[in-house]
């Protein structure tokens, strides 16, 4: 496995993954402050002040070396516009595993930007870093994310009933995964 890994921009046909920067604040706050976007996330809609702190923390996350290290780059469109964020966290160095996630602005949803961005991170995870397994854990009521996992070739491994008490209700967790050999196949 090639660790430590230092962040560098990743380019696809229609998107680029780049570090978050201060001028992303307005769009990031609009996205993370939207209760509908946050409906299936682990946090409630955030205030602009909270997003200021999130932006400072996430923009400084540039290195993967040990368990819990993560990168959360911005997804940018062809003109450099902010579309959302991706997430890749090392969950075990010994087992060569990571977790993948995404959030998009409403106007960027349903247009293939998340799929292209996730493929960039999966390619990075398996071909550059040398991970063995990448998982995505999500609320199974989030049909768009379930369909994205399936399009990425991730297999459903679990549907854990009433896994956590979140936002005033018991919620389920869906677990999807893809192995290095499945990615290469």
Automatic annotation (TrEMBL):
Keywords of the record: Transferase
Gene3D superfamilies associated with the record: 3.40.630.30
Domain of life: Bacteria
Claim: Transferase is one of the keywords in the record: yes
PROSITE patterns reported for this sequence: GNAT
One GO cellular component term: cytoplasm
Gene Ontology MF annotations: protein N-terminal-serine acetyltransferase activity; protein-N-terminal-alanine acetyltransferase activity
Domain N-acetyltransferase, chain residue ranges per copy: 15-172
Keyword Transferase attributed: yes
InterPro entries: Acyl_CoA_acyltransferase, GNAT_dom, Ribosomal_N-acetyltransferase
Protein name according to UniProt: GNAT family N-acetyltransferase
